[in-house]
Each structure stands twice: as C-alpha cells, then as structure tokens.
Amino acid sequence: MPELPEMETYRQQLTRLIIGVPITGIVVTRPKSLNVDPEVFAKKLIGNRVVRMERRAKHLLFHLATGEILLLHLMLGGWMFFGTQEEQPDRTFQVDIQFGVNRLCFIGLRLGYLHVHTPEAAYTLLQKLGPEPLELSFIQFQNVLRPKRGILKVTLVDQTFLSGIGNCYSDEICFEAGLLPLRKISTLTGNEQLQLYQAMQALLREAIAVGGYMEEPLFVGDRLTGQYNPKCRVYDRKDEPCLRCGRSIIQIEVSSRKCFYCTYCQK
C-alpha cells in the first residue's frame, strides 16, 4: 500500500503535470470507487481544473477550480500512471481522467476510492487521522506517544496515532532506530524515544527524496518514483543478510501484517 513518501511523491510529480490543465474526459470502469454516479462525477469534472494539490496522510486532495475536492486513497494495490493512451501500461485501471488533448491520469483503485466532496466534508473525514509525523517536534512526539501501551509496530501503523506510516516504513523506522518492532511502547526510555523520533524524521525524508518504494514509474521517463525500493534495510528482505551485521533478516506476522527485523541489531 502506498504510504506517506509514495503519496508525497505523487503529489509533487502530478503538481507539475496537471495544475491548471482543463479536464476533458472521464472513464469509470468501477463505479463503486466513486461516491456519486459516474455521470454526476463526469459532469462535475469535465471542464474543471485542478488548481492545487495537497497530501494528508496517505490521501491526495485535488482542489478543483469550482471549490470541490477530489479525495483519493489508493489503498492496497493502488497506483497511478500519467501519459497518453499509447503509453498506458498493461494494467487494469478503474478511473481515467483526461487532461487537455491527449494526456490521461490512469488510476488503479482495486480497493481504494476517489470521492468528490465539499472542502468541509473532506476535512471532516480526515479529522480522525493523527498528526503528520514530519510536522512534529520531539516534545510533541513524546506527548503523542505517552498514552500508548501497545507494541511499536502496531502503534506506528495506527493512523489515529500518526498519519501516513504503514507496513514498510514502520519496519524501516524501527531498524533505523535500533529497536525491535515488538517492543512495548511503555518500555522505551527517553533516549530510545529520541532514537525513534530521529529515525522517523530522517527515514521518511530520505524516502521522499528518492521517490518512495513504488516500483512502477508515474510517467514514461520518470527517474524518481520508486528509488527507495532497492534501499530498503529490512522490509521484504526475509533471510537476506542484515546490512549492518550480516545476520539473516527475520520475518514474522504481527496483527496480520508482515514484519521484518534483525534480532541482533534491534533491541
């Protein structure tokens, strides 16, 4: 599932590609991806323009010239591609939005959604999310952490705790911090809380800078999207040697999620 760095990469790249370009066509092959009938959706979008893009947690918000907002959550298996009909990858897409004469944003929404809302409704839906991790000072992070009693892995992926961190980056952050993902939050010392905070800040910024871990490019010639994938320290590296100590990376399941770590380097 795309997480904070992937969605931030999409936001940055799409901002350069679609802002101010008129929407000229809509194709919907999975109506339940929308919150209105496809005909209503098309009527609201065709002739409209995206004037600003925003990211909140794992969501993208497309601010339209008419004042409404397209709220996108790709969820598991979701991804996007921007290009011509001829460049379209051999993949299934649920919504295609045409910009200008021949450029389309192909949106794969196997489990995700693309809803149109008033600004008030969109922000009300997002109120349940926790704070953005990159906007927190260490003191604020400690305050958010203090009431938590669960284990580190489960807490980090809880979107009401912090927003935007998912399965991949929770494991990567724990490794960077030198902490086992199975540690109880209540057992973390002040120094370990600082290690966790600094690891979270550094790793998320690094992942954004190199385009996250999504393997598929956003457009033909895209050299940014997905460049974090080969840089993963532990995620999806079961039985491979740890980059620090050389011992094998362990994979277990935690609350129905894959979890990767090094038993020697993480305490």
From TrEMBL:
* InterPro entries the record matches: FPG_cat (IPR012319), FPG_N (IPR035937), H2TH_FPG (IPR015886), Ribosomal_uS13-like_H2TH (IPR010979), Znf_DNA_glyclase/AP_lyase (IPR000214)
Question: Which reactions does this protein catalyse?
Answer: Hydrolysis of DNA containing ring-opened 7-methylguanine residues, releasing 2,6-diamino-4-hydroxy-5-(N-methyl)formamidopyrimidine
Q: Which residues form the Formamidopyrimidine-DNA glycosylase catalytic domain?
A: 2-100
Question: One Pfam match, by short name?
Answer: Fapy_DNA_glyco
The alphabetical list of record keywords is: DNA damage, DNA repair, DNA-binding, Glycosidase, Hydrolase, Lyase, Membrane, Metal-binding, Multifunctional enzyme, Transmembrane, Transmembrane helix, Zinc, Zinc-finger
Membrane-crossing ranges are 60-82
The UniProt entry's sequence similarity note says: Belongs to the FPG family.
Name assigned to this protein: Formamidopyrimidine-DNA glycosylase
* Source organism of the structure: Paenibacillus oryzisoli
* Taxon lineage: Bacteria, Bacillati, Bacillota, Bacilli, Bacillales
